[in-house]
Design a protein that fits this description.
Number of strands: 8
CATH class: Alpha Beta
Radius of gyration: 21 Å
EC number: 4.2.3.5
Number of domains: 1
CATH architecture: 4-Layer Sandwich
Helix content: 25-40%
Pfam family, one: Chorismate_synt
CATH superfamily: Chorismate synthase AroC
Order of helices and strands: EHEEEEEEEH
Pathway: Metabolic intermediate biosynthesis; chorismate biosynthesis; chorismate from D-erythrose 4-phosphate and phosphoenolpyruvate: step 7/7
Enzyme class: lyase
GO molecular function: chorismate synthase activity; FMN binding
Strand order of the largest sheet: 1-6
Shape: elongated
CATH topology: Chorismate synthase, AroC fold
Distance between the termini: 33 Å
Length: 120
């Protein structure tokens, strides 16, 4: 969770699998490949050759015009109202940041695997 504002990450069917039966979640395999991709391309932490599908949940922008409750430096309750939206640029920018994080993670694991293979 090293990307600010990201509150959840799911791979494949993600959180939806908690409401599925094992028979619904299993990705049956046929001679031509998998018949579904609930695993999102990752089985037991390893790519299964299917498309890797990752989704993120990003928290809403906190600087809104609506009056909100907080505390001041003396820990006294106060109300604040932000004039204007100062951080709306976070939404279009989060997509390439998340894509880059996935790529870095995949590259990291590839290099780890290569290190193991070359040390044998």
């Amino acid at each position: 969770m090293s990307i600010g504002a990201v509150k959840g990450v799911e791979i494949g069917s993600g959180f939806q699998v908690a409401e599925m039966l094992g028979s619904e979640n299993n990705d049956a395999i046929a001679p031509g490949g998998f018949l579904s991709n609930n695993a999102g391309g990752i089985l037991a932490g390893v790519s299964n050759g299917e498309e890797i599908i990752v989704r993120v949940a990003v928290k809403p922008i906190p600087s809104i015009h609506k009056e909100q409750q907080t505390v001041n430096t003396a820990n006294e309750p106060v109300s604040i109202k932000v004039g204007g939206r100062h951080d709306i640029s976070a939404i279009p920018r989060i997509i390439p940041v998340c894509e880059a994080m996935v790529r870095l993670t995949l590259a990291d694991h590839l290099l780890r695997q290569q290190a193991i293979l070359t040390s044998e």
